[in-house]
UniProtKB/TrEMBL annotation, chains A, B:
This is Maleylacetoacetate isomerase. It comes from the Bacteria. Residues 98-225 form the GST C-terminal domain. The lineage of its organism: Bacteria, Pseudomonadati, Pseudomonadota, Gammaproteobacteria, Alteromonadales. Its EC number is 5.2.1.2. It comes from Moritella marina ATCC 15381. Residues 1-93 form the GST N-terminal domain. GO terms for biological process: glutathione metabolic process; L-phenylalanine catabolic process. PANTHER family: GLUTATHIONE S-TRANSFERASE YFCF, MALEYLACETOACETATE ISOMERASE. GO terms for cellular component: cytoplasm. NCBIfam families: maiA.
Amino acid sequence: MKLYSYFRSSAAYRVRIVLNLKHISYDTIPVHLVRHGGEQNSAEYLDVNPQGLVPSLDITPTINTGERELKPQIITQSTAIIEYLEEAFPQPALLPINLIERAYIRTLMQIIACDIHPVNNLRVLHYLEECFDCDKAEKITWYHHWLATGFAAFERLLIENGSTHYCCHKQVTLADVYLIPQVYNALRFNLDMSPYPTINRIYQHCIQIPAFVDAAPEQQPDADI
Amino acid sequence: MKLYSYFRSSAAYRVRIVLNLKHISYDTIPVHLVRHGGEQNSAEYLDVNPQGLVPSLDITPTINTGERELKPQIITQSTAIIEYLEEAFPQPALLPINLIERAYIRTLMQIIACDIHPVNNLRVLHYLEECFDCDKAEKITWYHHWLATGFAAFERLLIENGSTHYCCHKQVTLADVYLIPQVYNALRFNLDMSPYPTINRIYQHCIQIPAFVDAAPEQQPDADI
């Protein structure tokens, strides 16, 4: 497999954690979201991912097909990639068997994947600047607002469900996979994390797990921190 | 089941379509997102959904439990609700069996659920106004920008995959369930839809299906169009 990735993309970070947890080896193809006006906007990359976003996962099988060239099989959108990996490589399971628990974990995933991350990603921040000529401080206020709004709901759900060292149960699930990269970004942007003790506890616990350590931005081949 | 819904919410509209396609009867509990400063912000509703968003689906079983009161079982986030309904009520299937096709449909779902809808929903438009004092025309420009960006990628994927009257194959899938409410909103906000002939064709076809007709905003008990 080949993962089109950017070290700082929290959506790519999620996919890297899942690949590591499931012991799936992959090659990283770096797509630098800032350099050269954003490499994701090149015609070449738009053929891979028409949205011009990372991550994209190329799962084209490497069978010798003689003269026929296989159409590349590429999955885009981190949640589509991750649900695919969970179905195609079921062990270790990152979603429980119980349907209501699965739904709860998907709720936690979507709070981050729908209501925090897309409102705060690079292209939205750029467009804010373009439309409203806002400065860095205004962009940070915007960024913090959506993080704080989302984390407050996330924290409340964790407390109501008695979370300790993981979001759910006594093992890693996809909820942790989505939470950890978002907290990493929150810390990078200096959000005050003191209102979220449960999230902090889970973060401190999960970042010590090898699959999370190896997926971290600073461990990536394209890291230019 | 009880669906906390707002007639114009495209996320609630998706869930209504799935409930109808699967012939699941439900009661609507209206949550008016505008009236009284937004009924979703009441303490009562925040107990149902700590994010203060619609939809929420109450699936608490109605068993006579004697003196013990069942803890309400409520699922929030439309994608978590819809994946739950697909697992708990598999017929008719709204995702195919093939894992790569499932991934493709989830990609289409997420283009709308992550990269169009959350950047354009009411709370984001309100916050734009609060932060940047923008007027109605600026909000419409913002709204159209994310619709056009997302629809362009969606259209390209549909063309590459040979879509005709549905997003995928010859039957309704979750991709159609996500697309139709988003097009409904685009038309309401007068987006020029001419660059998206495939999306238009699928929209015109799907809005004639009874499950989609009955889920439409103007058919809801809380419609105040």
